[in-house]
Design brief:
The complex is a heterodimer of chains A (306) and B (273). Chain A has 306 residues and is α/β, with parallel strands linked by helices. Chain A has helices at 51-58, 100-108, 117-123, 139-151, 169-184, 196-202, 220-225, 240-245, 267-276, 291-299, and strands spanning 13-22, 25-35, 40-44, 66-71, 85-88, 157-161, 188-192, 205-210, 213-218, 230-235, 249-254, 259-264, 282-287. With 273 residues, chain B is mostly helical. Helices cover 73% and strands 0% of the residues of chain B. Residues 1-18 of chain B have low confidence and may be disordered. The longest helix of chain B has 32 residues, at 75-106. Classes of the chains: A alpha/beta (306), B mainly alpha (273).
Amino acid sequence: MTHSASAAPPPAVELVGVSKRFGSVEALRGLTLGIRAGELTALLGPNGAGKTTAISLMLGLARPTAGVVRVLGGNPAAGGGRTVTGSMPQESAIPQALTVREAVTLFARLYPAPLSVDTALELADLHSVATRRAGALSGGQARRLAFALAVVGNPQVLFLDEPTTGMDAGSRLAFWHAVDGLKREGRTILLTTHYLEEAERTADRVVVMNAGTLLADGTPASLRSGVAAGRVRFSSNLVLAELQALPGVDSAEVDGAGRATLRTREPEALLVTLVHAGVTFRELEVSRASLEDAFLSLTAPDALKA
Amino acid sequence: MTTPSTPAPTLPRLAVSSGRRAPLLPALAQLVLAELRRMARNPMFAVGTLGFPILWFALFGLPNVRETTDSGVNVGHYLLVSFGTYALLSLALFSFGAAVAIERTGGWLRLLRASPLPAPLYFAAKILAALLFSALSLTLLYSFAHVAGGVTLPLGLALTVLGKLLLGMVPLIALGLCIGFLVNPAAASVMANVLSVLVSFASGLFVPLDGLPDVVQRAAPYLPGYHLAQLGWSAVAHDTSHDLTHWLWLAGFTLVFGSVAVWAMKRDEARGQ
């Protein structure tokens, strides 16, 4: 933060050495994290990793036991910054008697420069149910209403906690389309999700937490490449010893029908060698390690596994 | 620390950080409207707070409205105050007890806390809406008593009773908030039901106090409903000599219940989840 601010803009959200304790439970332990402005960052971690606690602190709903939390350079607990943040919590039972439009209108009035109610309804794909009472919405529609409430204030920073839980495939598609648009306008988005393929597809950056600390922080691609292997499968007449001798192979298996499964960091080099050696192979499959593989190996209880 | 005013250059139309707040009055108006909608659209709530007082008045009040008490007070006026006080008591306990418990545990309150809404505005809106709804409830009750039983209060007296009852309702609202912030929604609903009936009964709202067992008569002066009703009765009996005592009691209740409610709210906030 002491470097020239013009070259690298300050992070939109910054946690420095943050700890949070609830009674005897230490939800966060010395977490240091910067969320870059204008990016979509996915915060991943198993249940109880401290994701929701971290978001609570960023929203100013709780104060850290130790450390500093800054949102757009200010203290979120002071309240002033809440005009430029929007939040979609995991649970937000909107008063059942209000219609969708009434709830969005109410929230728009709380912000100094809100979007129009219609824009927010449009973004959340809620026009068709605008006159329906919140109590009569389906699970996915209720999530979209929570999304509308999060964006109607025209926030610079958007916090989405498990946004797509309960949404059907169509809702989900519309939701990610809207999020994409918000990101293109330069808004900063932080989301937590259990759907790793969504994070892999949408996030500029992935932060993995476990037990209140930071495990990994990088692009989806860099996290994937940190995992041991891509996987190469094919059928040939090579025996196990020959397979293991191929360059860059970390592990190899072969079944009785000659179907081999190899793990390697460099599948391309492996294939080049096979072709040059004139090996005949069929049924070739090459798959990259997914973010899910990376996530599982990072958060595995047995850290040696990676 | 760097200034917060360095958003990415592509964001000319985004609000630039703090300093600006939404205008308070439109926000307050929307919140009051939302509260009124919540109350009006919940049939159980509307029947309980608008319908029941009228029903009780019809069943227990109407046969006697033309009589006069030993001390020369019109029984119709007296009962109007009794059932009006009951209406306010149940309204305060349901609106602030059961409803706040639901908003707190369901995440609505948390969502509002993460918004720029100043917390006092949330409470101001709830209180304003409750007072408006209470005024409506008392007006309906009086209209019914007037049309069905011929009970007539001079306009000045009617407004005095209305004003005294609404102002005296504040400690009941504080009691409702205590319940809302202390217990879960199911328990809050039961408590609101039980308390509104018990306190009403023991305050002499259903049966005059001198017809109640000795132990209840001695407990009554420790109940907020009793003092609120006394203020209304003193107006229709044109004997306000003890009003100051009753106001002081109600102020004391406000202080106690209000402190507990604020403590419980802070406790709830500190959980931060």
